[in-house]
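Hi W.,

Here's what went into the run:
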Amino acid sequence: MAKMVRTVTDYASARIVQRELLEQARQRGYSEETAFAIRLAFEEATNNAIRHGNAMDPAKGVRIEYEVTARRTTISVADEGRGFDPDGLPDPTCDENLEKPGGRGVMLMRAYMDKVTFNRRGNRVSMVKHNRP
Amino acid sequence: MREQDPRLRLSVNGNVTIIELLDRKILDGVNILQIGEQLSALVAQANAPKFVLDFTNVAHLSSSTLGVLITLSKRVREKAGQLRLCGIQPAILEIFVITRLNEIFQICSSREEAVKSFV
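Here's what came out:
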């Protein structure tokens, strides 16, 4: 299956792409656990891009590229924002941050995917999840 | 403007209010916002509330949902109340463990255990 490219502008259209991606994963025999991880990471990446990156501006697009093979799923999500420094985020699991309402999205992406990288500007995240039977 | 769909179902057991989350997926901005508003309204009306938040229907959530829960927990505490979570599926519980939020919330295995746990 070739790489798929989609541009979304809001949560509803991102969910459509999510369903499409997860359907492909299901067809390729991904486990429930792996599909759960992919769904969560996709959700966090697109939510961040729409809310923080594009500041909910419907005139700005979020470009999603993904490829689902029997061995792995790769996803990249790019917004039109200024970007951010993912290494500069406070650790949400430190005692002093535990009760802060935000700041867990990137951590969850890293916890659930096998590889998570950001471009230099910090407005595109690329993620890989291996399909382990 | 269209009225919000109910996102919660309430029932009362003694002096405990059980709040059942009705959405299977609590993921994006729209339903999280509505759930947050509906929970805030419940806390605002209550005095020293004893709330059980039942996750039995919830198969997916996101970090935004965790933020709503933290805000709810703080508001309940400000009202001298107590909050319990129950019915959390194993995959969701793992998110609480990874984020260490299982240390912030009192998580019970069942609704009955949650109701009994109040002092």
